[in-house]
Amino acid sequence: MEEKFDVLKALKETFQTVFGNTEGVRYYFAPGRVNLIGEHTDYNGGHVFPCALTVGTYGAARLREDKQIRLYSLNRAMNGISFSSVEDLRPLTGEQSWTNYIRGVVWSMQNRNYEFDTGFEMVIYGDIPAGAGLSSSASLEVLTGCKLEASLAGAQAPADYQFLRLGYFCVDSVDSTPEHPVFNRSVALKESFKK
Q1: What are the E-state strand segments in the chain?
Q2: What are the chain's domains?
Q3: Which of 24, 60, 73, 178 could form a disulfide with 11 if both were Cys (CB 3.0 to 4.6 A apart)?
């Protein structure tokens, strides 16, 4: 019988190997999803009925003392560590383009007046089949937003954003701007989250 993959153990061991130790690390999960009804209507202002799945994105993360962002994916181990900074969130291309989803959430939070005095490092693993229409990129964005809200920016949150904050960050992370053209999917999405 084949041994089941232990995600938590893999995250811990990989974090230890890649970033030196696991002190201060927290663990997160965000599910994939499928729309039971309303596929491709949400970004046009329509209604959907989504369902969370048992597959998703797992993460191990901790804050850093500097402003560096260091990202590593178990699914893309051959690409190594991706380096950037909370002060330089230009979209990347090629093998590191997957990090644009994470960096886009940080960029969106900054545009909503969150202040980042520190960076973070994160190891990611996802068991959602890429390109299967099960929201693997949205899962990665939600995982990132939850991590940042929980440990990095919670105390610096602007007072006027309540329940839909996370939705803003994930939508904005893919919204188009001249400076960040890779973070582009649909401007119409943003409208559905307005107060």
Answers
A1: 26-37, 49-63, 68-73, 82-85, 120-126
A2: 7-191 (3.30.230.10)
A3: 60
